[in-house]
Design brief:
4 helices, Phosphatidylethanolamine-binding Protein, PEBP_euk, globular, 26% strand, PEBP-like_sf, PEBP, alpha+beta
């Protein structure tokens, strides 16, 4: 009798797991959803991963925390790409000045278009890389890298925004930018988090 009860209990647990698996489509919850990037910034989870390396051994890993000092210099970025296609790379902070009150978000930290394959050096920079600089007492900020596959070359007369310039950086909406340029949904993503630590003054 005891063995029957144990069997029934085990079967019930298995049925619960199966039911839960069906509700989630058999997939584990994505960190992109867990950290609110969907729906705060984009509408769906990209299939591809962007590899972002700042220094040997220092890599962006879906929400890991890095310091402003560690991400001060432009990283090396790569993603699975078709060498005959063009891509747009964007890096945004939707939490400006804070996640609780993102009145200035999204803040544009980096924007490069017309990238041949995944060689960022061959693209046109519209906003030079600017590392994280979260204000004091604003908690963790999400710094999100997104890659979009372009339908063709983007023709623009926009001038490059220098690293030390604020022109066009606040109030940027990558979702709107993608819609305007017919980019569709992003094909790859990665992101880190950072908070004020006094290292940059």
């Amino acid at each position: 009798m005891i063995s029957v009860c144990l069997f029934e209990s085990d079967t019930f647990g298995q049925n619960q797991n199966k039911s839960k698996s069906k509700r989630t489509g058999g997939r584990r919850s994505s960190p992109v959803r867990r950290d609110g990037i969907v729906p705060d910034v984009i509408d769906s989870v990209p299939k591809g991963k962007i590899t972002v390396k700042y220094t040997p051994g220092l890599e962006v890993k879906y929400g890991n925390e890095l310091t402003p000092t560690q991400v001060k210099v432009q990283p090396v970025v790569e993603w699975p790409a078709d060498k005959d296609s063009y891509y747009t790379l964007a890096m945004v902070d939707p939490d400006a000045p804070s996640r609780k009150d993102p009145m200035f978000g999204q803040y544009k930290h980096w924007l490069v278009i017309n990238i041949a394959g995944s060689d960022v050096t061959k693209g046109k920079s519209l906003a030079e890389y600017k590392g994280s600089g979260p204000p004091k007492d604003t908690g963790l900020h999400r710094y999100i890298f997104l890659v979009y596959k372009q339908p063709g070359i983007i023709n623009t007369t926009e001038k490059t925004v220098a690293t030390d310039s604020l022109t066009g950086r606040p109030f940027f909406k990558v979702r709107d930018y993608a819609k305007t340029n017919r980019l569709g949904q992003p094909v790859a993503i990665n992101y880190f988090q950072a908070q004020f630590d006094g290292s940059l003054g």
